[in-house]
């Protein structure tokens, strides 16, 4: 006889505990098996059941019961195989017979710690509410007092500067008969500055991304620069750069990241003598908005041949970067020495800047950088930034929203008169709801010189399923059903790098037009409206006060 | 859109000429203010050119505060001029309109002009701060050989109110602006022209890049970069910052407010410098729609436009007398006997410069340099 504990199923979770419940339609299903084959977590499986049916034949009702053996698709209640809601099953179903449905009553986090292991995932903070960025509106519209510009007719310069900019009174210039000429006798160091499109693709490593995804992004970037004249740059993320790219002329469109694991840097340093172009910049990663205080993490299952060779490590080992650069013990060491070493490696021809996660201490870092003449920028990554792998608790509960963090840093620079000397790059939740140009423009008007996007690119260019209802978010497992964040050829062959590149181009061309559609009615076209805070309003007094913008309702 | 009337001449002339020119452009201003800045003064002031003139308005209470402050600061009052006020319906008469001529404090008499200029500016700012909360003191300029008059009202009526039609006050450079109030409050400190340490400008149109420019200027550490009751005051301060503080030649003012694209600088010998200037002074780039008319301490007058030339402007005249106007009817009023074919309508890359004493007019083209 079965023990009572098994008979009452008390040891099992019910479907109600799980974040997604699979709705399967018996009468539509053709039993082709595609859904069960494709499910990345094996949350559904074919099963056999006995079905009792009642039927009647003849002119009079004579109901008869019969039992049939039928095949069904069933959702499992094993927490290790919970349905992530990715919807790949729906995608492959030929007959609309299956669909996961979000279960707002779920108690998923109560159970997702089997074996004492905290829940790890990819994606971004699971908070589907409207972010501050999406609440900001552009309210200073040029009306009769000054003519609004025409986004289609007037010439616009939607460009920004990446690099340390000298204050005007320190420019090494001399007046030669009424003409200003560079003073060649001056030993004043003129830092390198790049003119770029103000939206850049943020750091996503080769390794975190699949080969076709990274390649698609890279091809898109090259096309935008060479064919569309849009100088968009992209950051490599930690984990090296393909050797062929390092030695190619396209390197100038890439920002190479160095992080605390220094993965791939042996190869990069050795490639320097063979480089035909300098990279756009070097980003030193100190923190990531999605998981402040954590280092990078590439799970063993994603470390296959290609990644192992680019990073110079053995296959199938977890690649964890330490939380900090361990050879550095203070901000002076970490920032000044790292910036100088990196600058020196490229003969001071390449801007070098640090990236930190959004934090209350950002201003302390900023002030340190403001005094460092070699610091080229500060990139701040807010709490809504994405990641390939992190503890859920870090993703959901750690970090600082980008809007107020950026704004206080900008206003701090204004106080010091250095707002044009040290560009601020803002990231973390840009285009979370798809409003790329609006979010970027809002951040620019709050004081950002440029913005960085990552998660949005995966969604827009490669149809990433992830969202703020914890949909999919399997990036850390190597089982990405879209082939974006996996190193498994069986999965990444689903992704066409040409199509990714096409989408990258479409996304940036659209953003370029939409930025103009925002700037034109505000009468701005010749220079990026950095810090034009009078253009913004919000319908919340507390936010308005904090950001020092107007309240409108 | 405000209307602008600037005249520069080798001979002294009356500010009524500017006011009458503004009258021809009447549909463009709404009586929300008239500002007059006179440089190279004649008449009463002709023999006092070396002494700084404090121009302003004050209440009875403010007069006492002002006197005490100037005494304490060591300035000795040499002379006072006041317009002969003729009450005009619609213009609220304030207690004292004044131009007080001072001698420098003893410790400054032999100091270089730059130091004297800093002293004058600091005094002006201090007086403004004292008088602004209760509107007991308004000070518009404090500089040798420069006089400023401002009041709210229709330009012709304000001219009559100040008695300029009967007075013998004259100058060789006079700027006048008839204000069309747009976004900002009707307030004396919002009236153009604006003046700082020998540099003056007036503008029409709205400055859409106002806030970042204001923040940039205010963070330069110069106490004179303050006020900003009008978004156009920044144009004067950019001029001052570019030419006086940075020591750039005047034409670089155009390169600062409307920088060229990199592809447009090919013909410029100074393209390397331009690139650096454009980067370092990026927040000072204006976005229009504006025409700016200004003068510098040496008596040069100029006109420039925003990069899209969204506001009109015309310069014309004869040797010895040129006018820089926002509309041609104003030019016809100021210098009717001229060859109209030589009138200059500056385009987006042009900077029209009238040399001191209205000797000649040149058009400097940003592309050609």
Report what the structure shows:
The complex is a heterodimer of chains A (553) and B (369). Chain A is of the alpha/beta class and 553 residues long. Chain A contains 18 helices and 23 strands. The mean pLDDT of chain A is 93. With 369 residues, chain B is an alpha+beta fold. Chain B is built from nine helices and 16 strands. Chain B has helices at 16-24, 60-72, 113-131, 155-161, 210-218, 233-245, 252-257, 271-280, 328-334, and strands at residues 3-13, 34-41, 52-58, 76-81, 96-103, 137-144, 146-151, 171-178, 194-196, 199-204, 291-295, 301-305, 314-318, 321-325, 350-354, 361-365. In chain B, the strands form three sheets. A six-stranded antiparallel sheet of chain B has the order 7-2-8-1-14-13, covered by helices on one side. In chain B, strands 9-10-11-12-15-16 form a six-stranded antiparallel sheet, covered by helices on one side. The radius of gyration of chain B is 20 Å and the shape is globular. Chain A binds chain B through residues 140, 142, 145-147, 149, 154, 157, 161, 165-169, 171, 173, 175, 178-182, 190, 193, 195, 414-417, 419-420, 522-527, 529-534, and chain B through 182-183, 205-206, 208-212, 215-216, 219-221, 245-249, 251-252, 258-259, 261-262, 269-270, 272-274, 276-277, 279-283, 285-289, 307-308, 310, 369.
